[in-house]
Specification:
This protein is an alpha+beta fold. 45% of the residues lie in helices and 6% in strands. The chain binds glutathione.
Length: 265
């Protein structure tokens, strides 16, 4: 019997952080994952538990206590199940991974702002903005972990925090033609990103799923919101994303219909 329930959105990167941590610890059975359909109003029971907030994941204890915010939930799980450790135990190394993780907020914001932008004139600025953050990550890794792929020996805390975002940014490759330039100033962060993407504990989603589900983000509508002229969100569970065609890449000139996106049963 599971000790916790996690209400989550399957393709949500913040929820994937939990899945990765649990996979690393071999603890998937401790948690009962309940899927929330982001395109529908939250069930009243969940609304009551969340006391006015809507953002997922939430961890619910058997006794009814509720914990929100992915990084807080990760810390709770790490402290509750310390073996195997995912975070570093040495204070200096722990500080370093925490320092690296302070960059995740701006990094997430830069990627999502760009994918949601509808103004082609802003593409270059948004690209430079994201590249500047990749360069900062690179600089940090060159200073503290010049060799190897991960920050430390193995996929750990910082990797659990960043990998879901590296995966979401597949949407920038598809809809904005973005990839890290093949330049020395991105070489270390590229090695980190590639090692993260390949790790067996982080394979909960794939590029095709991200690209298809995030089509509406690429058209400026986040969190399951409906775009003008559409009756179905690209985040809908049905029809299953595998059966849908790949969306048009040109997010600026083309607005695909429900039918073109394969969203009609
Ligand atoms: N800071 C939060 C962010 C979570 C978040 O933004 N979740 C999104 C899904 S990716 C969400 O629940 N969106 C729906 C909503 O806010 O109503 C965390 O780390 O848990």
């Amino acid at each position: 019997m599971s000790r916790f329930t996690v209400h989550h959105i399957p393709v949500c990167p913040f929820c994937q952080r939990l899945e990765i941590l649990l996979a690393l610890k071999g603890l998937a059975g401790e948690v009962d994952f309940r899927v929330v359909d982001i395109t529908q109003p939250r069930p009243p029971e969940l609304q009551r538990l969340m006391r006015g907030t809507t953002s997922l994941p939430v961890l619910v204890f058997e006794d009814g206590r509720v914990l929100k915010e992915s990084l807080v939930i990760l810390q709770y799980l790490e402290a509750t199940y310390p073996v195997p450790a995912v975070a570093q135990s040495d204070p200096w190394l722990r500080a370093l991974e925490n320092l690296l993780c302070t960059m995740e907020g701006p990094f997430v914001a830069a990627g999502y702002t760009w994918v949601m932008s509808q103004d082609p004139a802003k593409r270059d600025v948004l690209r430079q903005n994201l590249l500047a953050l990749y360069a900062k990550l690179d600089d940090f890794l060159v200073e503290h972990a010049p060799d190897g792929g991960f920050l430390f020996e193995d996929f750990g805390w910082a990797e659990a925090v960043f990998t879901p975002m590296f995966m979401r940014f597949w949407f920038l490759g598809y809809y904005e033609g973005f990839d890290l330039p093949d330049e020395p100033r991105y070489a270390r962060v590229r090695r980190w990103r590639d090692a993260c993407l390949a790790h067996p504990a982080a394979q909960q989603v794939c590029e095709e799923e991200i690209v298809k589900l995030y089509y509406d983000y690429a058209k400026g509508a986040g969190n399951g919101a409906l775009l003008p002229g559409r009756t179905r969100s690209s985040f809908a569970f049905e029809p299953h994303w595998r059966s849908r065609p790949w969306p048009p890449r040109d997010k600026y000139a083309v607005s695909a219909t429900d039918a073109q996106l394969g969203l009609l049963a």
